[in-house]
Amino acid sequence: MALPALATVASMEVRLGLEVGTLTGADLARAEASLADASAFVRSIGRTLWLDTSGAVTAPEDVAMVTTRAAIRDYRNPDGVNNEALGQGAYAYAYAPGQASIWLTEDEVKLVRQAVADSGPPDAWTGTGSVYTPSAYTPQEGDTGLIYPPWGGYQ
Asked: Which helix (H) or strand (E) holds 84?
């Protein structure tokens, strides 16, 4: 079962300067494929599914924005061409070695990771988070007073 995209075709259309609902047929299928690929890539960076128990997307706005931008890059350049030149009757193009057309900038990776950090410690690939409540800790005789959160470290 394919996971739902973290962003919508409508968000792509708006950023491409198109009327919402303009993409149809093969163009719509390409946009949906770009969103699916970008969503999978963003999920791999964030290490979370951003889904609730009903399967609805719960991704924060910045994660949806990053996903949309990555999908647009893929949509505009599905072959991953990284250089084109036209001159003196010749046309040349080049692909970046090993470069996929889905990629994130360093700033986008930071946004995705910050979104994960802001939502608390993720349970990787489950789409849920852990709740750590220090107030529920009851010291026992012989305790050192250190509390070990489920994600490690001291508090």
From this structure: strand 81-87
